[in-house]
Amino acid sequence: MPELPEVETVRRGLAPAMERASFLAVQAHREDLRWPLPANFARRLVGASVEALRRRAKYLLADLSSGEVLVMHLGMSGSFRVLDGAAEHAPGALHFARSRSLAHDHVVFRMSSGATVTFNDPRRFGFMLLVPRAELEKHPLMRIGPEPLDRAFTPASLAWACAGKATSLKAALLDQKVVAGLGNIYVCEALNRARLSPRRRASTLATRNGAPTPHAERLVAAIKAVLEDAIAAGGSSLRDHRRTDGELGSFQHKFRVYDRESGRCPTRGCPGIVRRVTQNGRSTFFCPVCQK
User: Fold this and answer.
1) Is 2 among the residues known to form the active site?
2) Which of 30, 47, 86, 212 has the fewest CB atoms below 10 angstroms from its CB?
3) What is the pTM assigned to this prediction?
């Protein structure tokens, strides 16, 4: 599933086609994705303009002139194609080619910008919702933690969220109520940069008084750095991502530990070998020597 850097890359690719443009026509080729499309979906969109296209965690949020917000999620296999004149590109397409079957083109937006935006999703784990803007923050999907690249995400806020937690550090970072938008790849990478074991108890990020420990300081800096590097690289191209210009994101070539089982730890001076273990049903990659 695409993580924060991949979704941010999709947002940046869609923005020129959708921001400050209105919906001239909307086609929904089926009535449901993961969940049923909102009632009168096309009617509620046509004529409305997109005032801003934002991202919250792994969700794309289109603020509409109608006062509603179009919430979009890529799910496991969702992707967008943008046809602008004679040129077509795929913001957030795949390393393995996405399905081009028209049977998987579930929603099509024709925008006043001249672009046609098509959502394709073979597995149909993605979804689209329409939520009144005034109610968005109270929506169950938005009951999540701080954005990791925002100023509100600090060592103190992370320590407070993890204080007293008996779960592993890896599990805590994957909890969207602790921090929003992180997934398996970037948690593994950030923990390696911070030299912290994924098996470490999450509570060790806070002192008895709840203040951040040096571990929390290192981890927050590592999370911000790895996400910024991944966004700059256009995300990671495994099975879920291609850049807006159709080229592959390149951050997978900079992975330190993820999918690097049996490779040498890249930390300078560390003789460790990357291991893979299973935590909560997910593969974890880490160096047992320098990550403590």
Assistant:
1) yes
2) 86
3) 0.88
